Fold Short-chain dehydrogenase/reductase SDR.
Amino acid sequence: MSRYAAVHANPQGLGDGRPTAMQIVKDESMEGKLAGKTVVITGVSSGIGIETVRALSATGARLLLTARDLAKAKSALDGIFDPSTMDLIQMDQSSLSSVTILVTNAAIMAVQDLQLTEDGHELQFATNHLSHFLLFNLLKPALLAGSSSNFQSRVVVVAAAAHRVAKLSPSDNYHFQKSGYNPWGAYGQSKLGNIYMANEIDRRYGSRGLHAISLHPGLIATGLVQNLPKEELGAMMQNEAMLKMQKSLEQGAATTLWAAVSKELEGKGGLYLSDCAVAPNGQDDGIPFLGTTSSSTYNSEDEARLWKDSLEMVGLSGDE
């Protein structure tokens, strides 16, 4: 049983006894222990990305921080950013020879109308899944090189409980070419893609010391809600059960940090986490915010199909 199980059993809302990201670092005795290693984090300009940076900086690792708007990220990280150990970058994988942890945190949610990228990909699927899939493949040599016997490389994929009510579309309908668009359905599929990517990474590269783990961070009020209609957001904020489950930003980054530095997870992967533990088995109950698995969470056939299709969508001919 997780050491944090008891404090998650009866949540009482923001700032209750559930752990923060920094507490995870201290509980794992990881302060200063990743000196000399490199960590890449996406989506650091808002939300739990900021707290992920704050906590991982305490490990002593060199942090490479990516965001679409570097000026916004610099402002958001005011008081945290340390140029001696951090770099804000627009990713150039050719300059990285060794990476030990990749945290894929950037995301958008519930875009209300069907929007396609210039390549014809549905916007949430492209942003949440394909961009991170491409980034992983570009960084793969560095991640393999950054693994060591005492700390194997980790890809930490921030997914979401919304995957519980999604199914992976057929290969010819990822972008709603043949069906009606649904904001939450599209978001759920993109988050399912996150989990499937992590599971497949571990299947393919775990034996070489490169592991991947996905996670549900929890219910957190961040900029992700900016696309929600006011009525829908208002209803969520009046839901007593959801308010009790809500986490602060510091608490919301805790499971990410547990995935990144936990000694219990050393050499392990292909797992889906929630509340700083491996997510318990759940039912297909149609509830999109519970931190349990569903029948969609693990599916080796769909994971392999999505990997193959994603390679084609990002223009990669194949992988090793």
About this structure: The chain is about 35% helix and 15% strand.
